[in-house]
Task: structure prediction
Amino acid sequence: MRLLAALIALLITFPAWADCPLDLGRGTGIVIFSSHYLIAFRPEPLRIEVGEPFSLLFNVCTKNDKPAELVAIDAQMPEHKHGMNYRPTIVSLGDGRYRVDGMVFHMPGTWELAIDVRAGEESERLSHELVVK
Amino acid sequence: MALAASAVAQTPLQWSEDEVRAIARHGPWPPTAPRDPSNRVAGSANAIVLGEHLFNEPRLSADGAMSCATCHVAGRDWGDGRAKAVGRAELDRRTPSLWNVGLAHWFGWDGAGDSLWSQSIRPILDPREMAGDAGRVAGLLREDKALACGYERAFGHKPGGDDEKLLVDAAKALAAFQATLISPRTPFDAFRDAVVAGDREAMARYPLAAQRGLKIFIDAKCSACHFGPRLTNGEFGDVGIPFFTRPGEVDSGRLDGLGKLANSTFNLLGKYNDDASGASALRTRHVQRLHSNFGEFRVPSLRQSGSGPFMHNGHLATLEDVVKHYSEVNPERLHSDAIPLVRPLALSADQSADLVAFLRTLSADVPSRPAPPLLCP
Result:
């Protein structure tokens, strides 16, 4: 409910985001945003298992409805300051949608995703913490 | 008095919800064994029999004196009990156990192999070990009547004329056999299942010293690396073991292993991968070579770990030495600028004994292995 309320508030504030499709299928996902970008993503498979490869499906939108690009993605464990042993690849699916393959969280704990996005000359890093058990 | 003491001794420790979750993650055991899609004969009964015969076959080696079983001895937990492996020369690393090797995704202490079959080729060709070659292996499969018959049963056709392909097929049969080496259930598994079921009577049968040791194992976050049912995450770490092999020479571990992986004809990106989907090569495609890989070695499973020596180079003789190492490890050696994954646990003598008691419950007696069935009776 709180997520829904936040999204409604966002859409009122930035009407262009109303055109940003947040449905990535299977009825679930994570939404993060900054003053310029709105990003929806979900893992595939939905449950991330320690040591098992997974993908991320992304939809990247901008406040002013300019085309946005997912430039890079990485992850690290903030507690131990080490990253992944694997380098993910990004495939554009068109219309701001992306698929990221080759993610592996090889330890249980908190992982911080670093998501680099760009719209024209404007780039930004958004982050989100995921806990795997 | 004796009755009271016994009753007290059989009361299991209290476990928090987080501890129960942590214990549950180390099972159930045995797991459902996955079938390797990169090996078209994985799980085939005929290939497993052929693989066991090849495993014990000294004619795969250059001088006919050494087989896989020379170092991977069934009665020694599929290792050799030596600090460092001995082939035609002494090597720099310990012979790893083959228990549960079919559940791994990287092979060798440095992870230079990305499949069990590609890893099985390495010691056959290594001049310091069996010093064999593709022609020798192929000739044996073509010319030895029993092996040729076993090959035909396993692969559905007679051995062909391509030596390298026959070497790979021999390795795939070897892998099919090795993937059957699943370690037995242990006292820990009975305790783990009892904890999950909330069966305090069954929990009480697990020694108290082992229970205390398990609490230390959980509190110390050993399962960050020794994760899951196999008690390894299958990846790599530097835990402060010296990596000098001799004056002026180092074993760079994973860093070198990744270089070998990339250059291998037999990696999963190559033509011998039987998985047309390419999914089995995902880790190989995405793994990255980092400076931090220097001095990292594969995190070993703690199941059926044998009586030692331990660590990638046999540096520690006993389980007590291993616990002492983690109790006293020098954090300066690990160069961490964050919360280090390995830090000195500063255990008391009693705590060290408890941790050893827990680690011993991850092993069980194994019945002696019968001779393999005939290839073509």
